[in-house]
Amino acid sequence: MDNCDIWLNNNKIPSFCIANLHLFNYKGHDSFTKGVKTMKYPETELVSQGHLACQGCGGALAMRLTLKVMGEKTIIVVPACCWSVINGPFPYSAVKIPFMHTAFETAAIAATGVRASLDMQGKTDIQVLAWAGDGGTFDIGFQALSGAAERNENIIYICYDNEAYMNTGIQRSSATPKLAWTTTTPSQTPKAERKKNIIEIMAAHKIPYAATANVAFPDDLMRKVRTAMGIKGMRFIHILSPCPPGWKISSEMSIKIARLATESKYFPLFEVFDGEEYVINYEPKGIPVKEYMKPQARFSHIKDDEYQLYQEFVDTEWEKLKLKATMNELLKKRRISS
Ligand SMILES: Cc1ncc(C[n+]2csc(CCOP(=O)(O)OP(=O)(O)O)c2C)c(N)n1
Ligand code: SF4
Ligand SMILES: [Mg+2]
């Protein structure tokens, strides 16, 4: 990584800590232990200790990693979500950059307004980041998001996806996976519908950059934030962010579970440039999706035959994604030869 400083703990193994919680380290993770002695991360810390997130909150870690890359010249716009609470009550703020609270459905349009104001003042070196949960993105903020994407507004929009309306007590959103328990989809009648494919929807707007990321893959996540910063126009990053109370896991399981989401192909890591160029960033180990879901008590009612159907769905989606990435190679060849 460019322009980064070494950030290691005493064991020479990178670790992440939110407040005093060590959420994970890289011991045992192949790509960091085989032939790689150290990792370099920005020293910048713009999320301070003492914020109000639960232990093991993926959303808090997602913000910390993002701001490490984006730095101080960022204005963040946040609609109603856990992060409006995590940041602390006025006049306190856990984030050391301007933090604008906005109404639930307005993240993208409020960020667009901040961008326009900065541009009028000639402050083009400041990035505007809209930061919203899945409810604020997939559901209630979607029309503003779609409008901003269609106009190719010059903002970075990040959705930290914990797969439900967590701040108000774990209600179902259109990002909640099929068959999951939430307080509005109890285990006797779990969610019947599939998770909305937000990244495909954003790609269909033909925005310059859309990507998935996962807090358990911090190097990939931070690289994507850096890539987004280098592109002009609408950039969208969808970060899988575990929520221990909402997923019914213990806080120390948070990163392990997030890692299994990608290793099982449930949540692949990929980028889409200009809505058509697909790049897969990580080849999952392909462990059974049951290994990802079973430790989460929100799925404890699922039966074996239902897991089988889930597996088939995950496998099919992965194959479709691979085909898109292959098509991309063909498109590139055609462009080069024409
Ligand atoms: C118009 C409106 N409807 C409902 C609410 C109540 N509300 C505040 S936060 C929230 C849930 C947000 O869910 P999500 O966007 O997924 O973020 P999370 O809480 O999971 O971090 C809801 C329903 C509100 N503030 N405004
Ligand atoms: S409820 Fe979930 S998303 Fe909200 S602060 Fe707690 S862990 Fe984070
Ligand atoms: Mg949510």
Can you put this structure into words, describing what you see?
It is a single chain. By secondary structure, this protein is α/β, with parallel strands linked by helices. The protein has helices spanning 30-33, 58-70, 82-86, 107-120, 134-139, 142-150, 198-204, 218-229, 244-247, 254-263, 289-293, 304-337, and strands spanning 5-6, 15-18, 21-25, 40-41, 74-79, 99-102, 127-133, 156-161, 209-214, 235-240, 270-273, 277-280. The strands form 3 sheets. Strands 6-5-7-8-10-9-11-12 form an 8-stranded mixed sheet, sandwiched between helices. The model is unreliable at 1-33 (pLDDT under 50). Thiamine diphosphate binds at residues 59, 80-82, 104, 132-136, 162, 165-168, 173.
Helix content: 25-40%
Going by CATH, what is the homologous superfamily?
A: Thiamin diphosphate (ThDP)-binding fold, Pyr/PP domains
Largest sheet: 8 strands, mixed
Give the H and E element order: EEEHEHEHEHEHHEHEHEHHEEHH
* Ligand species: thiamine diphosphate, iron/sulfur cluster, magnesium ion
Structural class: alpha/beta
Total number of distinct structural domains: 1
**Percent of sequence in beta strands:** 15-25%
Give the mean pLDDT: 89
CATH topology: Rossmann fold
In CATH terms, what is the architecture?
3-Layer(aba) Sandwich
CATH class: Alpha Beta
Broad shape: globular
Total DSSP E strands: 12
Low-confidence region ranges:
1-33
- Please count the helical segments: 12
Separation of the first and last Cα atoms: 35 Å
